[in-house]
Amino acid sequence: MDDRTVLLTRRRFLQASAAIGGASLISGLMPSVWAAGSDAPEMTTVRVGFIPLTDCAPLVIAALKGFDKKYGITLVPSKEASWAAVRDKLVSGELDAAHVLYGLLYGLELGIASKPQAMANLMTLNQNGQAITLSAALQEQGIADAPSLKKLIAGQAPGTYTFAHTFPTGTHAMWLYYWLASADINPFTDIRTVVVPPPQMVMNMRIGNMSGFCVGEPWNARAINDRIGFTAATSQTIWPDHPEKVLGTRREWVEKHPHTARALVSAVLEASRWIDASEANKRETAQILAGRAWLNTKAQYLTGRMLGEYDNGAGHRWQDAHPIQFFRDGEVSFPWHSDGMWFLTQFRRWGLLKQAPDYEDIAARVNRIDIWRDAATAVGGITPPAQLLRTSTLMDGTVWDGRDPEAYANRFTLHRKGA
């Protein structure tokens, strides 16, 4: 893509957002001191891929609200059709960075089902905000949760029911597997699993290709609106305040463009803070994302769950205590080592890694806390966490603190070792 094409692409995105209304660029922004002299970004145009999901919001807002310009770069978002496309374009260099599944990035680093690629996680883009949807057909049979699903599956031949996730090492696969296993359902023998790109989930459920799926919003809310499914579980009920998408790139790109990487993270951090600053900003973000250039859907499918207002489509409504979050004083974005290590424990649990990896070493080389800290300093008002590990309690009562990852991986009674 040459410079003229990049500029034309960006102009089209800005025109599309202007047509929505309320997406005007921030005016009067002064260049950051980090964008001058020897600290200036090595690149002025940064191509960033995204999948049409609610959690791509920080990248879109960074581009449309002018936070990128503040740090001396022009962020050019590129809508991609699938996570496989994001993977391929990241590896080839067609994209400089991307909105990407946490587990996908780690899978690339480890060479799971592909040649190992040295990758970098610059920041976490969001926590929470995914869900597991079950079909209306299952609902009609009285299936409401994982235990009732277990009873139904127990009376059928293995693989009778098909469930979809979005990528073999991705977050949605891990949430789906964890949820199923909590009811003693083996995701590799009791059911059949398939990979489906997020925008194709609802259509595939409508025509009967699957009984359930795990995906990001707005596709769970859309299934409810279309009366083809209901929310059986949110991802935050599996792990409250779990890591989800990250801003990923190649390690080589960071080494060649450290100032550009800092500028990119700074811009996205500012955008994340802006989104979470008020309900009005969240509503405006939903309106923007609904536009044709982004998710090409109705704002009503995004707004409720972005605000934490949930309706599961089966008669239950609630204000979620752990809705999708992008900033929370900068804590959401911090690339905790323990977050990355958790995905490694699940790769071990499900046989994607045959031998114990060096958990801490992998997390330390992938999660670029150095870049995040520089960006947080540039943005200002963000206090970095004192520790690289955090403690969380998951749905089954297990406590994850990153301190003995191999023991944690081996503690599960339902696993797939040696697969």
UniProtKB/TrEMBL annotation:
Gene Ontology CC, one term: endomembrane system
UniProt record similarity statement: Belongs to the CmpA/NrtA family.
Keywords for this protein: Cell inner membrane, Cell membrane, Membrane, Signal, Transport
Keyword Magnesium: no
NCBIfam families: TAT_signal_seq
UniProt-annotated location(s): Endomembrane system
Matches recorded under Gene3D superfamilies: Periplasmic binding protein-like II (3.40.190.10)
Name of the protein: ABC transporter substrate-binding protein
Pfam families registered for this protein in UniProt: NMT1_2 (PF13379)
Organism in which the protein naturally occurs: Citrobacter gillenii
Superkingdom field: Bacteria
